[in-house]
Known about the structure:
The complex is a heterodimer of chains A (243) and B (429).
Chain A (H helix, E strand, L loop, with lengths): L2 E12 L2 E12 L3 E5 L6 H8 L7 E6 L2 E2 L4 H7 E4 L11 H9 L6 H15 L14 H13 L5 E5 L7 H18 L2 E6 L2 H7 L2 E6 L2 E6 L1 H7 L5 H11 L1
Parallel strand pairs in A: 3-8, 3-9, 6-7, 7-8
Antiparallel strand pairs in A: 1-2, 1-4, 4-5, 9-10
Helix pairs in contact in A: 3-4, 4-5, 5-6
Chain B lengths: L4 H13 L2 H34 L2 E6 L4 H12 L3 E5 L4 H7 L5 E7 L3 H10 L6 E9 L8 H17 L4 E9 L2 E3 L4 H39 L3 H5 L5 H37 L16 H27 L4 H8 L3 H13 L7 H9 L4 H10 L3 H27 L2 H4 L4 H15 L1
Parallel strand pairs in B: 1-2, 1-3, 4-5
Antiparallel strand pairs in B: 3-4, 5-6
Helix pairs in contact in B: 2-11, 2-12, 7-9, 7-10, 7-11, 7-12, 7-14, 9-10, 9-15, 10-11, 10-14, 10-15, 14-15
Amino acid sequence: MDYAVRVEELRKVFGDVQALNGLSFSVDKGEIFGLIGPNGAGKTTALRIVSTLLLPTSGKVEVFGLDVVEQPEEVRKVLTYLPEEAGAYPNLSGREYLEFMAKFKARDKHELKEFVEEAAVISGLGERLKDKVKTYSKGMKRRLLVARALMTKPRLAVLDEPTSGLDVLHSYHVREIIKRYVKKHEVTVLLSSHNMLEVEYLCDRVALLNKGRIIAEGAPEELKEKFESANLEEVFAKVVKIA
Amino acid sequence: MLKGIGNLVLKELKELMRDPKILLGMVLMPLLMFPLMGTIIGASMEATKEKLAEMHVLVWDKDCGSYAKNFTEYLRSYGIRVHEVDVSKLSEAVALMPDYNATLLIEIPNGFSENVSRVIEGNTTVSAKVEVYGVFSGSGMFEEVGVSMVDALVESYNRQKAPNPVGVEKNTIVKGEILEGIDPGTVSGLMMAQSITMPLTIMMLLTFAMQIAATSVAMEKEEKTLETLLTLPIGRFTILAGKLAGSTIVAAVGALAYLVGFQYYMSSFTGMIPAEGVDLAALGLVPSMLGYVLIGISLFVSLLSALALAIILSAFAENVRSAQSLIGFVYPLIFLPSFLLMYMDISMLPLSLQILILAIPYSHPILASKAVIMGNLSTAVLSIIYVSAFTVVILYAAAKLFATEKILTVKLRMKKLKIKWKRKASTES
Lengths: 243, 429
């Protein structure tokens, strides 16, 4: 089977800290796959390696068959990455920021315009796109950044805590965007979250991460059934105890 | 009214002083830099003194009378190395000066002894003149010291003999040309203003440019935009080049403004000076067009290396504040040559200091400017070649840094270093 992302025996060591300890999982094309786990479980490190920001200490990672170590520039052409604490240039307007980002992927002016208009719809920021980013609230900034990550219809969108730090309404908006948009354009999504309920709502399949390795993997419904739990939070608590 | 201020101040102090970069940059660096600068300037003054003690003077005695001999001996008695030359023309005497490593030529005219004896006997009050020719080399603030010393010696000679039997006529030799009636002190005074302004302006420009570049990378880190940038489908070197080009454009505008200002400054002098009988342009002490181009290139290449260095350093910082503190470590490399070259010419420094100043790339725009003014274009070109080589090395290091994950993960881990050092010390003991 052709995978969108394939991770095998991935290890990453920072000095004395083992951030990833033999992590393996795969993401099918067109699915939303969630890495869930507590802070420090290794979610961000895994996503940064997939996105070519960090190099693995050992193991193999492929994105649509492209090796992230051997072909990082090719990998960057097929994915977009939304870091957890991402920001935008404060002195650019929202539209200028989107245009700046779109120019790296657009083949012509027509496509550039298409991307930016798509982002305007996704973000729902309307007239506020004319304002400088420094005047945006945290929620508005995150919507702008999610729109940036999705506007080019990447083959793979890597989203690190997409609703990080957002209030209920903004979180709801962002979740709806992801769910609706990726299905419509067949974008594969690899996301991380420590919000189990969000993941349950969004993801086709999830992997539970603890101390740099996967302790359970499957569709949310399957996992709930297997561990006789009402939600993924309960599943996680039980799995951690077993582990 | 200010309830809780003590608590706030304490918090501020803890927060600021516990940041090792601030502690190093703001407290330790000045404590080290100023004594170091004092030592270096002290050494330079010492070097000047030694140079003066070793001063060689050519005496062209056309009179050959008793007072002429007496005057020459008087100079010798003060430890001045006097070389008497027998020539028929002034230009021949001037041409001999480099052979004797002499910076001063004293011409004792015919009739000198007779004139002096007439003054001493009270038959006249018109002093016998000696012509003093000082070589102007554009070396720095203490340039006119040699001529002033002859002035002082003549005055003390006069006190020994009678009221003012000897007078001094001052002349200047610039690039082998004799400028009669022009005091080297006047030329030196005019050039001195420039020798202070130029290093100061270059110093300001370099520090300003480094701040811009460091801030631009640190802002990417602080505003959390760097990670996104690094996952875009563009080469890492392109990102570095973009940063450099952006900062360079801003810095180039600065350099251009500097050059325009500098040219205006020089032309304001040349416009003003002919009234006093000294025209720096006519003396060849104003850079030619090619000279200005060389100064511009030298400044631009130095700026580029400073920017690349600032970018490398700012990669170690997590935010703008620590990036600026880290840049502080480079400032001594800019300040030191600037201050030193205000007072001295590099040739007047001890060899070790000369090597140090030549090794610092940020000395070179000043050295190149001085060389250009003195018409020494090949020195300026060599200086540009050296700084360009340094710039290539720094750019390569910056490109390497951007090509790896280090740009995200590298940090100054002072604590870790300290622990490692302690461990090493304990295992050794």
